[in-house]
Amino acid sequence: MMRLLLVVVVVLLLLVLDVASSAALVGETCSSSSSCGTSSSGGLRCTSCIPPPGTGPAVCARTTPIDPISSSLPFNRYSWLTTHNSLAVVGTKSPIGSAIISPPNQEDSVTSQLNNGVRGLMLDAYDFNNDVWLCHSFNGKCFAFTAYQPALSVLKEIGAFLESNPSAVITIFLEDYTAAGSLGKVMAAAGLTKFLFPVEKMPKKKEDKWPLLRDMIAQNHRLLVFTSKQGKEATDGLAFQWTYVVETQYGSDGLAQGQCRNRGESRPMDSKAQSLVLMNFFTTNPSQSWACGNNSSPLVTKLKACYQASANRWPNFIAVDFYMANAPFGTYDMRRTPSPSPSPSAFAAAAPPKTSPSPAPSSIMSSAASRRQVSEREGATTTIAPAASSSSSINNQRSFLPAFILMGLLVLLL
Ligand SMILES: *[C@@H]1O[C@H](CO)[C@@H](O)[C@H](O)[C@H]1NC(C)=O
C-alpha cells in the first residue's frame, strides 16, 4: 500500500510573467526552455506532453500557477497547487545508499516545486534509523529502499523557502507513522516552529473562521501542518487533519468522473464542520503519461463535481502527480485553445453565484491571446475581489470561487 502524502500551496508570478513578455508565449513551439524565457522569470518550460510523453511537438508550457496578488481573503478562499508524494522524485537515491523502489510521482525537488508555485506538500513520515524519515513505504514501516530523506533536510528546505519568500504560505499534509514527539522535535530542529500556524487558532467548528491570508502573513504564521495521526495536537502541536479537512478518495478509485466521494478517514465532502477541502487527482500507480492526458480538462470536470459534492466549495488543495505535466496543444491552456478544450464558461457556470464578488473565471480564461492581456485582466480582477467588505461576509459566501489561485492552477494544468 504505497500511499499518499500530502500537501499544499500556491502562487507566484503574474507580475513576473509580464516582465518576461518578450519571450515566447505559452503554446508556441520551442527548442529549449531558454527560448520560452527562463523558468525562474517566466514560469515556462519547453516540453512535449502529448501522450505518450515526448512524442509531440515541444511547446512552451506553464509550470507555475498565477500569483493571486490579493491576500485579502480568508485562507480557505484560495486553492493551492499540491503535490502528491512530493518527495518521490524521478531518479532519487536514498542518502543511505539504496536505490529507491517506490515509483516516482514528481519530476523535481521540493525546493524546485516551491519555486514553481506549489504550496501544498504531501509527505509520509516514519520513525526510521533513530530519526524521522520521509519514506514512501508500505505496511506502516520504512525500509532502506523506500527511505527518501531524513525529514530534517526537507523541512530545512521548506524553512529556507519561507525565509526567502516572506509572503509564501505552505501547507504540509503528513501521512504520519511517527511516535508522539518525534515530529515536533524535528520541526523545531529545522527552525520551523516559529512559522507554524497555531493549532488553537484553527477553525474547529462551523462558526469558526480562518484569518485573512494577509494577516497570517503579517503574523508569520505561514506554515500549516496536518497529520493523519490523532493526538499530535497535544504532543507535537500538529493539527489532526480530519478535524479541519475533508478529502476525496485518492488513487484510481477516486478518479471516476461525475462523482466526488470522500476517502474513508474523512468526513463526507459536504461536512461543513471541516473548513478545508482537498481534492486528489492521480492514479494509484503514478503515471506521467496519464498526468499528461488528465491534468487538464478531466481535472476541471472533476473539480466541478467536487465543488457540488462539497456543499458548493472549491477544493482548497488540488493534489496531483507530475504537476508539471499537462497537454500542450490540447487542453493545457484554455486561453489559447478555444476548442476542443473544455469550455471555460462551462467551468465558470459551475462557479460563483451571480451575487458573488468573485470575478468570473471566464472573463479571464477566455481567449486572451497573450500573457500581457491576461495580466491586464488579472489586474482588473484584483480590484474586484478585495471589495468584499468584511472577512466575515467573505467567509459567509463560501460558494465564492477561490478564483485567483484556481485560475493559476488552470493555467498551469490546462
Ligand atoms: C485519462 O484517464 C482515464 C481514466 O483513468 C484513462 O482511461 C485515460 O487513458 C487517461 N488518459 C491518458 C492519456 O492516459
UniProtKB/TrEMBL annotation:
Gene3D superfamilies, sorted: Phosphatidylinositol (PI) phosphodiesterase
InterPro entries given in the database record: PI-PLC_domain (IPR051057), PLC-like_Pdiesterase_TIM-brl (IPR017946)
Superkingdom of source: Eukaryota
Key word Signal present: yes
Feature: compositional bias, Low complexity: 344-353, 361-370, 380-394
GO terms for biological process, alphabetical: lipid metabolic process
UniProt feature coiled coil, ranges: none
Signal sequence annotation: 1-22
A GO MF label: phosphoric diester hydrolase activity
Keywords attached to this entry: Signal
Protein name: PI-PLC X domain-containing protein
Lineage of origin: Eukaryota, Viridiplantae, Streptophyta, Embryophyta, Tracheophyta
Name of the coding gene: gb13833
